[in-house]
Amino acid sequence: MKKYSTGIPDVLIIEPDVHGDHRGFFMETWRKEWFTGIEGAAEFVQDNHSKSIQGTLRGLHYQTRHTQGKYIRVVKGEIYDVVVDLRISSPTFGKWVGEMLSAENKKSLWVPPGFAHGFYVLSEEAEITYKCTNYYAAEHERTLLWCDPQVGITWPLIENKVVLSDKDRAGSNLIDCETFP
């Protein structure tokens, strides 16, 4: 397994060792010791699985209380995964990083607590699994607007197609978001 830093040092790309032959492949997708010493990487308490059609943009979600660290990987298809730093005291506050994650490249992304997270589906459909360090708490969930000009995310949109939920369409701009210390 290899760990890579991104443009925001606390957000990590994790690339597993893949062992393949004519039958297929084998890889470890998670190992507790990979997260030793990584801030915010407490025990994972919840696993989620999501399926979306091409053009779907989910996010940018975060929880103001019962904050979640997320360990994300794609099991089918390809997404563009985006993380925005919402920690006011951070030198990267308001900055974002994006990474292509796919079933083919087998990369995973560690998103620490204190960040908004979202993704855009590039393939015909995509299935994403992710581990969370805290339980989902709907009453504390917030949405940073995916197209906030202050954040300036460059999404690789397919023919400007964006399929959104009502909640994601009504997200807040960074200036109006609840943030973290």
Please give a structural write-up:
The protein is mostly beta strands. The chain has one domain (2-176): Jelly Rolls (Sandwich), CATH 2.60.120. The protein is built from one helix and 13 strands. The chain has a six-stranded antiparallel β-sheet with strand order 1-2-10-7-12-5, with no helix packed on it. The protein has a five-stranded antiparallel β-sheet with strand order 9-8-11-6-13, with no helix packed on it. The chain has a two-stranded antiparallel ribbon with strand order 3-4. Strand 3 and strand 4 (24-27) form a beta hairpin.
Characterize this entry briefly.
The chain is mainly beta and about 180 residues long.
Largest sheet: 6 strands, antiparallel
Order of helices and strands: EEEEEEEEEEEEEH
CATH domain class name: Mainly Beta
Runs in which pLDDT lies below 50 for 5 or more consecutive residues are none
Number of domains: 1
**Subunit organisation of the chains:** single chain
Q: Mind telling me the C-alpha Rg?
A: 16 Å
CATH superfamily: Jelly Rolls
Numbering strands along the chain, what is their spatial order in the largest sheet?
1-2-10-7-12-5
Count, helices: 1
Overall shape: globular
